[in-house]
């Protein structure tokens, strides 16, 4: 059979574009994925205790884009959920992003009040400051609080997560979790926040439920593309792999999850607790918090960052810095020479996209490059 579009990858980028092509253009689409499931890293499933597990780590949908929220709302109802995260600092659990409440919990009252007043005077209430910007302060007391936050919240966590110091990463990465001059303990402040009512996998099932869309799982593009007939290609996999690593391999970080079930109702106060300075894992996620499930047991995931090794684990995060971005740009120039091929997604564009961002990019790609 001849397909109008072959889409490599069944995550958000691939499935959103597939839905648009099938429903708006009436074209035939084949989605292939080397994994045994759709939904990419957002894939979820029920474990033996009836708890909905995010297989590849916690995924909380948040956006300030009404267009993105309304689009996905065609395929799911939402459970309102506002993520809160705590980090263990000197034996205490404090809110992250580090904020005015965090200061109160780690410093004596008089000192905490002084630091709060200094931050408010310098930046004003409600501002978010990247840690590397905060460290640039020359004022002595502000430098003390900046150094404390850097050492206790960012330094150890970043070393574990990325294998690099914060200053060795692209600013776009280190600024993702700023210092927040606020009493707002929410991890995100976006207008729309929630979890798909029946999970992400079910959202994807509805997204691609169209007579013009076919799906082949356990199918590797490199091995099977020659046997598939198609006119145009949407590629969401690693761009360096597409070009057979001709300029070298782009570095990624990967993750290992150790899932454990405990015979008690709850394991921790919130869905996510970070461990910046202790243990080899970076965080523990307790999944019941997302869907407020009522079970006598609970399942948690201990998350261990690791180096990506081709064929052994999955590429999760592009390691963005000057040299890696330069290498990606060489591949990008190669991709621009190709006709009838579009590269889109975290791996194909070597960008640390959030879920809402990649949905927005996919919608834009369809409007400007496919439906034009």
Describe this structure in words.
It is built from 14 helices and 19 strands. It is α/β, with parallel strands linked by helices and about 375 residues long. The strands form 5 sheets. The chain has a 7-stranded mixed β-sheet. The chain has a 5-stranded parallel β-sheet with strand order 12-2-1-13-19, with helices on one face. Strand 3 and strand 4 form a beta hairpin. The protein starts with a strand and ends with a helix.
The total beta strand count reads 19
How large a portion of the residues is in β-strands, by DSSP E?
15-25%
Q: List segments where confidence is low: pLDDT < 50 over at least 5 consecutive residues.
A: none
CATH superfamily membership of the largest domain? NAD(P)-binding Rossmann-like Domain
Distance between the termini: 25 Å
Count of separate structural domains: 3
Please state the overall shape, judged from the principal axes of the Cα atoms.
globular
Radius of gyration using CA atoms only: 22 Å
Main sheet attributes: strand count, strand direction, barrel closure: 7 strands, mixed
Average pLDDT taken over every residue: 97
Q: Return the CATH class of the largest domain.
A: Alpha Beta
Fold-level CATH name of the largest domain: Rossmann fold
- Order of strands in the sheet with the most strands? 8-7-15-16-17-14-18
Q: Estimate percent helicity.
A: 25-40%
Structural class per helix/strand content?
A: alpha/beta
| CATH architecture assignment of the largest domain | 3-Layer(aba) Sandwich
Number of helices: 14
């Amino acid at each position: 059979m001849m397909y109008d579009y072959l889409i490599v990858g069944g995550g958000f980028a691939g499935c959103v574009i597939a839905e648009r092509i099938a429903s708006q253009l009436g074209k035939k689409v084949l989605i292939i994925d080397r994994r045994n499931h759709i939904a990419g890293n957002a894939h979820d499933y029920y474990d033996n205790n009836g708890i909905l597990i995010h297989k590849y780590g916690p995924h909380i949908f948040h956006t300030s884009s009404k267009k993105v929220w309304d689009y996905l709302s065609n395929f799911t109802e939402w459970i309102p959920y506002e993520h809160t995260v705590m980090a263990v600092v000197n034996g205490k659990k404090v809110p992250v992003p580090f904020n005015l409440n965090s200061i109160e919990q780690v410093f004596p009252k008089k000192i905490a009040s002084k630091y709060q007043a200094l931050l408010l005077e310098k930046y004003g209430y409600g501002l978010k400051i990247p840690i590397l910007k905060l460290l640039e302060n020359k004022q002595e007391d502000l430098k003390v609080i900046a150094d404390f936050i850097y050492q206790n919240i960012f330094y150890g966590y970043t070393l574990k997560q990325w294998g690099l110091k914060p200053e060795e990463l692209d600013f776009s990465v280190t600024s993702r979790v700023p210092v927040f001059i606020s009493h707002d303990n929410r991890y995100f402040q976006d207008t729309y926040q929630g979890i798909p009512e029946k999970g992400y996998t079910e959202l994807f099932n509805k997204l691609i439920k169209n007579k013009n869309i076919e799906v082949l799982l356990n199918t590797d593009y490199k091995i099977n593309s020659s046997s598939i007939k198609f006119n145009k290609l949407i590629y969401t996999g690693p761009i360096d792999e597409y070009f057979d690593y001709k300029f070298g391999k782009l570095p990624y970080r990967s993750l290992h999850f150790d899932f454990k079930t405990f015979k008690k109702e709850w394991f921790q106060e919130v869905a996510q607790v970070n461990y910046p300075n202790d243990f080899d894992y970076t965080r523990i996620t307790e999944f019941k918090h997302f869907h407020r499930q009522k079970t006598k047991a609970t399942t948690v995931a201990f998350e261990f960052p690791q180096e990506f090794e081709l064929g052994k684990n999955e590429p999760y995060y592009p390691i963005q810095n000057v040299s890696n971005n330069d290498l990606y740009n060489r591949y990008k120039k190669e991709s621009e020479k190709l006709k009838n091929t579009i590269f889109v997604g975290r791996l194909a564009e070597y960008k640390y996209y959030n879920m809402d961002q990649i949905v927005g990019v996919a919608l834009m790609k369809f409007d400007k490059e496919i439906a034009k």
